[in-house]
Each structure stands twice: as C-alpha cells, then as structure tokens.
Amino acid sequence: MTNLLVSLPLNWEEYLGSLADDHEIDVGRVIAGLCEWAFSRSEFKAQFEAWLDKTYPPKGQVEDQSKEKGEAVSEREEEREDEAEEEVHEDRNYSEDSKLSLDDAT
Fold first, then answer.
1. Distance separating alpha carbons of residues 80 and 61, to the nearest angstrom
2. Which is deepest, 2, 8, 78, 86, by most CB within 10 Å?
3. Residue 79: partners with Cβ closer than 8 Å, 6 or more residues away
4. Per-residue model confidence as pLDDT tens digits over 51-83
5. Which tens digit of pLDDT belongs to each residue from 13-41?
6. At residue 24, what are phi and psi to the nearest 5 degrees?
C-alpha cells in the first residue's frame, strides 16, 4: 500500500476517524476499505469517473470547453447583430413604403 497524504473535510475526517477508533484500526485502512468497496463494481467506478470529469474536467477538456463557450457567445452576438441589422432594414423599408404610398395618394 502506498502512503499518501490526503486532506479531508472536517466532517468526513471526524466520521472516518471515529469508525477507525471503533474498530481499532488506522484511518488509512478505513479509507482504503472505502475505496475498495466503492470501486469494486464497474458501474460505481464509471459513475465516479463521470462525476469527476464533470466536476473537475480533464486538463485539455477545460481549454476545449472554454473555447467552445467563447465560440457560442460569438455566434450569439453575431446573430443579435444580424437581427438588429434586419430590423433596421425592415424599418427603412417600411419608411420608404410609407413615403411611396403617401406620394401615390397625392
């Protein structure tokens, strides 16, 4: 077994520590047993990996996601600009049509 220094939130440290004390074993063994139990089934392992990827994306994926978000924002801005231009053209066309209608009426 590898010795590894792990920081735990206080509530988990207290809980796991009390379990270790109750069973008169080292807290490291409790954590090792917990990991062994949690990852003993492939579904649990896959579920944990999916959670980990979502919560803490892998190194290259973070840059990709940032790039995708930036591209999506740019696309939305372009769409808004296009819509605004279309509205200006529609307003201009309406104004021109109204003027023509008035000229024809006179």
1. 28
2. 8
3. none
4. 999 999 998 876 666 667 777 777 888 888 888
5. 999 999 999 999 999 999 999 999 999 99
6. 55, 50
| Amino acid occupying residue 41 | R
> Do residues 35 and 41 make contact, with C-beta atoms less than 8 angstroms apart?
no
- Spell out the long-range contacts of 6-11 with Cβ–Cβ below 8 A and sequence spacing 24 or more: 6/31
Gap between the Cα atoms of 52 and 46, Å rounded: 10
* DSSP-derived 3-state class of residue 106: coil
In 3D space, the residue among 3, 7, 6, 32 whose CA is nearest the CA of residue 19 turns out to be 32
For residues 49 and 58, what is the distance between their CA atoms, to the nearest angstrom? Answer: 11
At 9, give phi and psi (nearest 5°).
-60, 150
| Those residues with Cβ within 8 angstroms of residue 23's Cβ, 6 or more apart along the chain or in another chain | 30
